[in-house]
Amino acid sequence: MRSDRPETIPRPVRVRLPGGLWPNDEAEAALREVELRAASDEDRYFALDLRETLSPASRATALLARCMTGGEEATHALTIGDREALLLHLRRLTFGETIECVLRCPAPSCEARMEMSLQIADLLVPAYAQVAKTHRQQAVVGAATYEIEFRLPTARDLDAVAALVAHDAQQCAALLLQRCIMRADRDGIACDAASLPVEAGDTVAEAMARHDPQAELELDLSCPSCQAAFSIVFDTASFLLQEIDQAATRVLHEVHVLASRYGWSEDEILRIPARRRARYIELAAVAAVSASRGRAE
Fold first, then answer.
1. Which residues on adjacent β-strands are paired with residue 138?
2. Among 35, 33, 5, 46, which Cα is nearest to 248's?
3. If pLDDT is split at 50, 70 and 90, which confidence band does 168 have?
4. DSSP assignment, residue 98?
5. Gyration radius (Cα) of the chain, Å
6. What phi, psi does 86 have (nearest 5°)?
7. Does the pLDDT value for residue 150 go beyond 60?
8. How far, in Å, CA of 91 to CA of 124, rounded?
9. Nearest to 130 by CA among 210, 204, 74
């Protein structure tokens, strides 16, 4: 059982948001920087423990809340683009600048294994020139003209609809859009967001993407084997959580081995620097092999 020990928390650094975090409704300017620290061993355990109970989106938000100054309230207020940027910064602080990826060519006649390296700096967009709390968009559908006022989706919105993703992605997108529409008029007469035609909703979704370009990272790639060109969306949250889970599982294994070998508590083991811990693991493995040979003789 893990103890409630005070752990060594990585020092936070200031990172820049592409959009802006609105602390409250009265704010007149966006806060463009927040403090963020690397994920510690305890943060990784926390995320791993939530794997069976929360969606990846909600789990990523919860992890970010632990590592960002301001906690849950500030994290939930992040736009999707700002959240994406902070997850990239969190990945950089925790594991480094370079992301090693492996994927398959989507062409059925090829399906070649592709390895690529991504740089965090290349995935972060420049700070937005303009930041606003609400936006307006006109959509003409048939003979009707819609005037729609909307805000950008936040982490709170994403978490609210995340449970539907596995069952109905289209409904999830529709509910997310409805949450963000502040007002809608059809030919000057107010109408409900749920009654908007699909074409009007698509126009608003496109406007959201323009106003928050960091929200979705689309990579244009080509297969080195068959030269097929294709695009993929890089899911920072899922990729980071996979790395976090692997790191947490690895540390749990180290704790198990060292506790079994030396009788140290988890508290004592986690206070040992990672590199030295790895050396102890090597020594324990050598000792185990020697003991096995001794029994065989």
1. 147
2. 46
3. confident
4. E
5. 24
6. -70, -35
7. yes
8. 12
9. 210
At residue 22, the 3 state secondary structure works out as coil
For the segment 183-231, what is each residue's pLDDT rounded down to a tens digit? Answer: 999 999 999 998 999 999 999 999 999 999 999 999 999 998 999 899 9
Taking a C-beta distance cutoff of 8 angstroms, is the pair 158, 77 a contact?
Answer: no
Q: How far is CA 139 from the centre of its chain?
A: 32
Name the pTM for this structure. Answer: 0.86
- Domain boundary assignment for the chain: 1-103+235-297, 135-211
Q: What is the pLDDT of residues 93-140, one digit of tens each?
A: 999 999 998 888 999 899 899 998 999 999 999 989 888 889 999 999
CA distance 203 to 211: 13
Residue pair 107/52 in contact (Cβ under 8 Å)? The answer is no
Residues 6 or more apart whose CB falls under 8 angstroms from that of 11 comprise 37
Query: Which of 43, 210, 16 is CA-nearest to residue 121?
Result: 16
Residue type at 290?
S
